[in-house]
Write a structure and sequence with these properties.
Blueprint lengths: L1 H18 L10 E2 L4 H7 L5 H23 L6 H25 L5 E2 H17 L13
Parallel strand pairs: 1-2
Helix pairs in contact: 1-3, 3-4, 3-5, 4-5
């Protein structure tokens, strides 16, 4: 059941970020500067950008929650989090690259960072053994 939910989430992400879009740019643009949106808002730019950042975190939270359950429970917390980090970076960067290369929107390293944050937070929230009250192994 969880694997099917993960497939549905992947399909939903591809639909929302790629399949449902029409080319919107005349030339490809990729914003490589990390956290440029925060500097832009701090210098008087549109604060709506912050909502977009939060939405990017929220979009990938389910991926982390599902990966937290799908990865082997025998793995250590760092191994689970690193795996979630690697998979979410790859998937998010792939989305950004397709948006960039097909003129579907700006590719942004910020989106990759925020998506990855969401996935890692989701995975961490429900990883076994993360709670300070969890029983120590015997």
């Amino acid at each position: 059941g969880l694997a099917a939910l993960m497939v549905l989430w992947i399909g939903a992400m591809l639909y929302v970020t790629i399949l449902n879009r029409q080319p919107a740019l005349t030339q490809p643009v990729f914003a490589w500067a990390p956290f440029h949106s925060y500097r832009e808002v701090a210098s008087g730019g549109n604060p709506e950008i912050l909502r977009s950042n939060l939405m990017n975190v929220a979009l990938f939270l389910p991926a982390g929650l599902l990966l937290g359950e799908l990865l082997p429970r025998s793995w250590s917390l760092p191994a689970r989090l690193l795996t979630t980090l690697a998979l979410s970076v790859c998937f998010s960067f792939a989305i950004e690259y397709v948006q960039f290369s097909h003129l579907l929107g700006r590719g942004e390293i910020n989106d990759v960072l925020h998506n990855t944050l969401g996935a890692v937070c989701g995975s961490w929230m429900f990883s076994p053994g993360r709670s300070p009250t969890a029983e120590a192994p015997a």
